[in-house]
């Protein structure tokens, strides 16, 4: 795969992600339920790209863009997290036997989600209607027109750095016993897995199956820890619902049951992570990086 033009590869990747960003923005305006999720993913991939390849793309420009991309992602995060929690709650509820659902649980969930959406949705509208958003898109367009200073050897070096960062964070998490600190450490692992995954994804045309194995291993880590995080958000919502039900004089049994089921799911996701993160150090996955 040595024939691949590395500068063109990075430039084309950035152009593709900018197009995905604009498409997701359009679909949000059309009330596409997946629009916010797709916009977050596109921005996250761009942020990863300009972080990993900041020296090749231009350090000063990339550092400024990273901050703007992070702020935009945070503005979108509240609504997307709510959508994830809503989906998990209704799936959980739909799996319960009728006699285990006491009270108007579905109605209380819908009311709770509706109230939170009314708080979170304006942030998305404000972001997409802001001058800062238009400036961000314009800055990305300018960056995409530049020719990155990149070679095959430096691309490999950047990927190796991201992969080692992921392995180091996984090692720190494995040695952390305090529950709160371990939660933070696993959050860092998840972020590092995203970055390594997206770097491998970008460099797939250059490194072929070798990059694909890295991407798959990092994605497995990201999926396990991402699902675990989703249970944390869902459990907090269930606790809030249970407390409010109690204060209203309603039966809180069902919320406690769903909370317990999410605890079981969380433990299963962590077990998945323990299995998949062992692949990070295997020679068959990353030995070629050196």
TrEMBL record:
Domain spans labelled CHAD: 1-282
Entry protein name: CHAD domain-containing protein
Cleavable signal peptide: none
Top-level taxon: Bacteria
InterPro entries: CHAD_dom, CHAD_dom_sf
Pfam family, one: CHAD
């Amino acid at each position: 795969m040595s024939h691949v033009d590395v500068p063109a590869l990075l430039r084309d990747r950035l152009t593709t992600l900018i197009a995905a960003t604009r498409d997701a923005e359009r679909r949000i305006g059309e009330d596409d339920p997946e629009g916010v999720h797709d916009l977050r993913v596109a921005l996250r991939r761009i942020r990863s790209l300009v972080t990993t390849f900041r020296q090749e793309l231009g350090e000063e420009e990339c550092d400024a863009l990273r901050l703007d991309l992070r702020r935009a992602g945070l503005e979108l995060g509240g609504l997307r997290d709510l959508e994830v929690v809503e989906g998990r709650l209704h799936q959980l509820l739909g799996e319960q036997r009728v006699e285990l659902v006491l009270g108007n649980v579905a109605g209380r969930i819908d009311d709770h989600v509706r109230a939170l959406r009314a708080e979170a949705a304006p942030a998305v509208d404000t972001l997409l209607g802001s001058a800062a958003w238009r400036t961000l898109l314009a800055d990305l367009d300018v960056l995409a027109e530049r020719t990155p200073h990149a070679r095959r050897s430096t691309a490999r070096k950047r990927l190796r750095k991201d992969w080692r960062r992921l392995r180091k964070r996984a090692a720190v998490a494995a040695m952390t016993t305090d529950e709160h600190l371990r939660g933070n450490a696993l959050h860092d692992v998840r972020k590092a897995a995203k970055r390594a995954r997206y770097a491998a994804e970008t460099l797939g045309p250059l490194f072929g199956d070798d990059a694909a194995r890295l991407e798959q291993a990092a994605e497995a880590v990201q999926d396990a820890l991402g699902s675990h995080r989703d249970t944390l958000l869902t459990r907090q919502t269930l606790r809030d619902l249970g407390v409010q039900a109690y204060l209203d004089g309603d039966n809180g049994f069902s919320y406690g049951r769903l909370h317990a089921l999410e605890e079981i799911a969380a433990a299963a996701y962590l077990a998945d992570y323990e299995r998949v993160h062992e692949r990070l150090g295997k020679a068959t996955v990353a030995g070629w990086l050196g």
